[in-house]
Amino acid sequence: MKPRLRHVADLAGVSQATVSRVLNDRPGVAAATRREVLAALHQLGYEPAGLSPARARGLVGLIVPELDNPAFPRFAQALESRLAAEGLTTVLCTSTPSGMREGDYLDVLLDHAVTGIVIISGEAADTTADHDRYHDLRARGVPTILVNGRPDDLDLPAVSVDHAAAGRKVVAHLASLGHRRLGLALGPRRYLPSQEFLAGFEAGLERAGLASDPALISETFYGIEGGHAAGARLLQAGATAIVCASDRMALGAMRSVRELSLSVPDDVSVTGFDDAGPNAYVHPPLTSLRQPFESMSAAVVRMLMTRTADQDADTSELRFQPELIVRSSTGPSRHLRELVAGTAVT
Q1: Are 185 and 234 in contact (CB under 8 A)?
Q2: Tell me: the pLDDT tens digits for 204-256?
Q3: 249 and 270 part of one domain
């Protein structure tokens, strides 16, 4: 196993931040401490590949979790074209449970001394994952940008869509249509975007004067199958509208509605998230919260170029607002239609 930053820090008896300062030849480290760190580096054979003069100019590693979700090819295409305009070539790495994992790709990219790395919805977004790899990248001086998921303890620049704002917006839309039983098909809660989306959803309910009901929140996995399972549970709990954390989940939820001989949106409204696929052409066309892929990708490339030129550049997180794209999968609740028609039972 290749030594990591925490191994050096443990051997030298210092923090990872101190090791990083020594590797990057920064001030603020006592001479004796610096000698201890250098001795630990030598003893463990730690190779700061990112600082090597042999770094392969022109290659940028792009790591995505999958390609089945249209959101990730959209990001990859937008990033590739912008990187190409900067004279950079994209190396696309798809991290999957059954194939190479994110850490494996990072090893390969570091061995090739790439110019920079972009990680979309990576392990940084998983609150249960080991984040030592990212501290390693920072210490090695490899320009790295995180997309949609950066914990507070990582000093790396990041670009994210505002998932909390997405939750608030979709609840406001459905509440305005008279829906009072809003179900949420949520991705695994260990992921930061899921936590933020849930917080926004619950804040939206409070603003609309609606109570939060645990029975109307279904944690599942991203994908059509996950949305289908969550949809069935939420319908059984009496949801008249189902908010989904991805468009693919929404497709599964719509199927669960039809399997009960109900219709979208006459009986149940359904919304998605991403708006990366052919949502205007499904039946009915899917209301979704659109990620601004182009604007976010442009920001990633600007950050990457800035970090390439200056490792001390700003490491803040830029947040982009999602856009609610209203289509035919959402409509007035049955109760609201009956009120308008004057036939509601009070």
Answers
A1: yes
A2: 999 999 999 999 999 999 999 999 999 999 999 999 999 999 999 999 999 99
A3: yes
As beta bridge partners, residue 59 has 89
> Are 227 and 249 in contact, with CB atoms under 8 Å apart?
yes
Q: How many CA atoms lie within 13 A of 312 on its CB side?
A: 5
Identify the three-state secondary structure at position 108: helix
Residue 10: CB partners within 8 Å, gap ≥ 6? none
What DSSP string describes 86-147?
TT-EEEEEE--TTS--HHHHHHHHHHTTEEEEEEES-GGGBTTS--HHHHHHHHHT--EEEE
What is the rounded distance in angstroms from the CA atom of residue 290 to the CA atom of residue 143?
A: 28
Domain assignment present for 346? no
Whole-number CA gyration radius for the chain: 23
Cα separation, 47 vs 217, whole angstroms: 47
* Cβ atoms of residues 239 and 183 within 8 Å: yes
Is there a single domain that holds both residue 209 and residue 332? yes
Span 296-319, pLDDT tens digits: 999 999 999 998 877 777 788 999
pLDDT value of residue 200: 98
Give the distance from CA 251 to its chain's centroid.
20
Structure token digits, residue 212: 């939060």
Token pair recorded at residue 103: 């850490």
Cα four-point dihedral sign 139, 141, 146, 152:
positive
**Phi and psi at residue 208, to the nearest 5°:** -85, 0
With 0-12 CB in 10 A as exposed, 13-18 as middle and 19+ as buried, what is 95? buried
What CATH number is given to the structural domain containing 114?
A: 3.40.50.2300
Cα dihedral 223/228/233/238 (nearest 10):
110
pLDDT at residue 327 is higher than 60:
yes
Q: Which domain holds residue 299?
A: 55-161+293-322
Do 140 and 284 fall within a single domain? no
Q: Which of 56-70, 118-132, 161-175, 327-341 has the lowest mean pLDDT?
A: 327-341
